[in-house]
Design a protein that fits this description.
This protein has helices at 30-35, 37-43, 78-90, 109-116, 178-194, 227-234, 239-253, 266-273, 286-291, 305-319, 337-341, 349-360, 390-401, 406-416, 453-457, 463-475, 480-485, and strands at residues 11-14, 47-50, 54-55, 67-71, 94-99, 128-130, 140-141, 149-151, 160-163, 198-201, 225-226, 256-259, 281-282, 367-369, 487-491, 497-503, 507-514, 520-523, 529-534, 537-540, 543-546, 551-557. With 558 residues, the chain is an alpha/beta fold. This is Alpha-glucosidase.
Length: 558
């Protein structure tokens, strides 16, 4: 595997609406991010991924882009972005942007021109398709519920539909059109020429469509089939577009790119993230794939520790010798990892340290999501009206339609909802958690008085400083080679233990985490050096003792 500039880096995702507000309007902005750059540097971050800040109506929180080359005024201006970029670089960090090109906003000029003139070049940028048998062209279900098809605005009396895998205000872009792809490449190169280091590529698994629109067997009582199943069917053909995107944009700039792509098989992995792959890396979304195999929140099942471990280990083993994954436990589309993947008795600081030990030493480029580094848990929403996410409202309505009570329908949204990760960052114990001097755009976490950066920053036993220690260990001169390029090897103990080795040329590093209530006594193969531990953990000779949530990292020299 060729060594790249981004190997050994630590990435951090910022959800800008909820990170830091500088002007008191209750919404995070670019100047707010600027004010917290020293914090990110202190944590040990190298690459900052900023979720969409483009002009948008915010139907889907910015993932409905109305102008790809302008900053939405709620975040600031392009001058603010240029200043942010310069200050980030001055601190030795890089910025990557969100690239949202499976779809755009219905407010984008392309879509407006397309609807105004069905013979225009812009009409070819979208999927405008005739209906079938008096209805929609096929039976795919949108990610946000209901059909992926709606009548073209201004042409409601005609048998013509446009395609949207997400909200109806997010028309899918027609990648089969070369003119559309040229527009996209021009825009991508414009940002890279500006000086950003690369992109996180949103929903790229959806850009390849079967243009015959055959539909698929229904997977629920509504007679529809989830669009993700068509994505899986078309996955092997994505390379037609992705190789061109790489060659025309990413490769000439030596950009760092991380793709959001579900279900990559070992057979296609080399093409995706090998030395000449479409992307630098892919997010490990294996846990979400297992959970989201069910059609709705009502059928979602939280993973056991064993299932969580097996998903992570499966990805790590598949990537061995091919490339690097991007391990994550949460992002803007998921509940908080410590609440979702740890047992209830570890939905706390001890659990946050335990899961951090697992995540941060895996092979790949680990991504930390804002607030994860202080152990933020799920937020308690008291009403569906406190949820901003379209998906949560759709799931709530589906549950109510099936006879669920208000309380039960709300409970599944609270447990599985994406808004858990979108509540404001907790900076201190003031009224609005130091996020804003105004009214926060979204509900604050219920524990913000005690769970915040200020409370943890100088506490050597805090979750925050444990993340700093893990990052420092990854970057240390002595262990960098092993923890960056060393192979991954699973270690079997029991169903409550997550253990693995990183195999370097001159050392082996063993990571062991106990999630059971009962203490674990584990005999290592040889006597090693304890590099780092959390919660109740000790090592005497070859005997490792871990309490509930205990984690240990040991080095064995060869």
């Amino acid at each position: 595997m060729q060594k790249k500039w981004w190997h050994g880096k630590i990435a951090y995702q910022i959800y800008p609406k909820s990170f830091m507000d500088s002007n008191g309007d209750g919404i995070g902005d670019l100047k707010g991010i600027m004010s917290r750059l020293p914090y990110l540097k202190h944590l040990g971050v190298d690459i900052i991924w900023i979720s969409p800040i483009y002009v948008s109506p915010f139907v889907d929180q910015g993932y409905d882009v109305a102008d790809y080359q302008n900053i939405d005024p709620i975040f600031g201006s392009m001058a603010d972005f240029d200043e942010l970029l310069a200050k980030t670089k001055a601190l030795g960090m890089d910025i990557i942007m969100d690239l949202v090109v499976n779809h755009c906003s219905s407010e984008h000029q392309w879509f407006k021109k397309a609807c105004a003139d069905l013979n225009s070049k812009e009409a070819g940028y979208f999927y405008f398709v005739k209906g079938r048998n008096g209805g929609a062209p096929d039976n795919l279900r949108s990610y946000f519920g209901g059909s992926v098809w709606d009548k073209i605005p201004g042409h409601e009396n005609e048998d013509l539909y446009y395609l949207h895998y997400f909200a109806k205000q997010q028309p899918d872009l027609n990648w089969s059109n070369p003119a559309l792809r040229e527009e996209i490449y021009k825009m991508v190169n414009w940002w890279l020429d500006k000086g950003i280091a690369g992109f996180r590529i949103d929903a790229i698994h959806s850009v390849m469509k079967d243009l015959s629109f055959p539909g698929l067997p229904a997977d629920d009582i509504d007679g529809l089939c989830h669009a993700s199943k068509m994505n899986a069917k078309m996955f092997s053909k994505l390379g037609i577009y992705l190789s061109e995107l790489r060659d025309r944009t990413f490769k000439p700039h030596d950009a760092f790119t991380v793709g959001e792509a579900f279900s990559p098989s070992k057979e296609v992995l080399e093409a995706f993230i090998g030395d000449d792959g479409y992307f630098s890396t892919l997010f490990d979304l294996s846990c979400r794939e297992v959970i989201e195999a069910a059609p709705s929140y009502m059928e979602y099942k939280k993973l056991t520790v064993k299932q969580f471990r097996d998903c992570i280990f499966g990805t790590q083993q598949m990537y061995n010798g091919i490339g690097m994954s991007a391990p994550i436990i949460e992002n803007h589309d998921e509940p908080r990892g410590v609440s979702y993947f740890m047992p209830p008795y570890l939905n706390n600081a001890e659990g946050a340290k335990a899961i951090a030990t697992v995540l941060m030493l895996l092979r790949g480029i680990p991504f930390i999501y804002q607030g994860q580094e202080i152990g933020m848990t799920n937020t308690r929403f008291d009403s569906i009206d406190e949820h901003e996410d379209l998906f949560a409202h759709d799931e709530y309505n589906k549950a109510k339609a099936r006879g669920w009570s208000d309380a039960d329908a709300l409970a599944i949204c609270n447990e599985h909802g994406r808004d858990n990760a979108r509540t404001p960052m907790l900076w201190d114990d003031s009224e609005n958690a130091g996020f804003t001097t105004g009214k926060p755009w979204m509900k604050l976490h219920q524990d913000h008085k005690t769970l915040n950066v200020k409370a943890q920053y100088h506490d050597e036993n805090s979750v925050f400083n444990y993340y700093r220690a893990l990052i420092a260990l990854r970057k240390s001169k002595e262990h960098f080679d092993c923890l960056t390029w060393g192979a991954f090897e699973p270690v079997s103990v029991n169903d409550a233990v997550i253990a693995y080795k990183r195999l370097g040329e001159s050392e082996t590093i063993l990571v062991v985490v106990n999630t059971a209530k009962e203490p674990l006594v584990y005999e290592t193969e040889a006597e090693g050096t304890l590099l780092l531990s959390c919660n109740e953990a000790s090592c005497t000779g070859r005997t490792l003792t871990l309490g509930c949530g205990g984690g240990a990292v040991l080095s064995f020299k060869k």
